[in-house]
């Protein structure tokens, strides 16, 4: 025990001695945290952290010459009031440091200015909202460029299918100002209830691109936007005055919660507009008309080719237009394009077949609007159009023709044979439609059918015309036979 005590006391003495020299070499005044942080281990860790001067520096800055509202909370996004149709200057400023993006030195860049919806709900139905506005304001644009007042803008273009966007080229090294005019007001996109409509906010967004090797301005450089509300002429001035008077009535403590009003609005950085590189920037003839061509197709492309086989029940193309739950994202995109929903391919870019089929009718109407929403719902559920006329046709066997004529009303012959009729669904009340559907139903080459006759009183043959088809009774039954044409080429069909 004594030996253990001796050993323990010796260890304690050595430990105290080892601690006694700490701090004596540095002295009381020399010791500081900065010296500790200067040690190599901390320097190595600091080298991995981003330096303050290495933060991303935007190459451009866009400043709109319109005052911000004083009634905006301190940490909320600024809000700027504009008058409908009034010209507002947007200064396009080169904000690059020395050596930044040298490839655009001495070259032009392209900018696209848009007025878009701030509300995400309205963004999903933007196409329908703009189409409705276009219907109510034919010939007008949502956004225009005041060319006489603008400075330094070159090659100004507006796309007829993009009423809310303008584009132009400009030289970053020169003074450039684009004067914009917004023609839509915020209350035009709100549901009209019991008065006191509250206008929806918009966004002014600027996307800038540089030229690629193939000469197209598709290489994105910078995007920025700001929140606005648009009022009828002089309405923005009154709203600004009202907000200012409200703020003056608040206490000093309450005013601290709000940001001050600035004479100009600086657009803040944001993500590029999604469809910029494909639909508007290239200005190629192919993508630009997709908006309108899709609408034209709704009325000009007949559905008879796709819907007829489904009516026939012969299995030739049954279900070929259906979207299956197992369809991949790529297959779903192809299905949307095939069924004239190209406008919504970007909106449903991450939807598989199962995702799209899970949407209800109400979901689709809310996303795509009433017209296209119902059309998409019907296409997904394979709801075919009701035919204008239905007739039943059976091919008359070659044997015992006389006997079969006697038993045609009973549907079977004396030897027990059953007549099998095919249903012919007519979307068009025309003789050519009858000929085409007979050829499809009975696998007859269409070019070999010369004429279609109907057997009349006393066995006469009456040429089937459009007027005769229009007078067919719905669900009429016919037997038909074929006879060779007089010239030996093809044959005639006789309906009995």
From TrEMBL:
<keyword id="KW-0539">Nucleus</keyword>
<dbReference type="InterPro" id="IPR007604">
    <property type="entry name" value="CP2"/>
</dbReference>
<dbReference type="Pfam" id="PF18016">
    <property type="entry name" value="SAM_3"/>
</dbReference>
<keyword id="KW-0238">DNA-binding</keyword>
<feature type="compositionally biased region" description="Polar residues">
    <location>
        <begin position="276"/>
        <end position="320"/>
    </location>
</feature>
<dbReference type="GO" id="GO:0001228">
    <property type="term" value="F:DNA-binding transcription activator activity, RNA polymerase II-specific"/>
</dbReference>
<keyword id="KW-0597">Phosphoprotein</keyword>
<dbReference type="GO" id="GO:0005634">
    <property type="term" value="C:nucleus"/>
</dbReference>
<keyword id="KW-0805">Transcription regulation</keyword>
<dbReference type="Pfam" id="PF25416">
    <property type="entry name" value="GRHL1_C"/>
</dbReference>
<dbReference type="InterPro" id="IPR040167">
    <property type="entry name" value="TF_CP2-like"/>
</dbReference>
<dbReference type="GO" id="GO:0000978">
    <property type="term" value="F:RNA polymerase II cis-regulatory region sequence-specific DNA binding"/>
</dbReference>
<feature type="compositionally biased region" description="Basic and acidic residues">
    <location>
        <begin position="234"/>
        <end position="258"/>
    </location>
</feature>
<dbReference type="InterPro" id="IPR013761">
    <property type="entry name" value="SAM/pointed_sf"/>
</dbReference>
<dbReference type="InterPro" id="IPR041418">
    <property type="entry name" value="SAM_3"/>
</dbReference>
<feature type="region of interest" description="Disordered">
    <location>
        <begin position="232"/>
        <end position="263"/>
    </location>
</feature>
<dbReference type="InterPro" id="IPR057520">
    <property type="entry name" value="GRHL1/CP2_C"/>
</dbReference>
<dbReference type="InterPro" id="IPR037600">
    <property type="entry name" value="Ubp1_SAM"/>
</dbReference>
<keyword id="KW-0804">Transcription</keyword>
<dbReference type="Pfam" id="PF04516">
    <property type="entry name" value="CP2"/>
</dbReference>
<protein>
    <recommendedName>
        <fullName>Upstream-binding protein 1</fullName>
    </recommendedName>
</protein>
<feature type="region of interest" description="Disordered">
    <location>
        <begin position="276"/>
        <end position="325"/>
    </location>
</feature>
<feature type="domain" description="Grh/CP2 DB">
    <location>
        <begin position="56"/>
        <end position="293"/>
    </location>
</feature>
<comment type="similarity">
    <text>Belongs to the grh/CP2 family. CP2 subfamily.</text>
</comment>
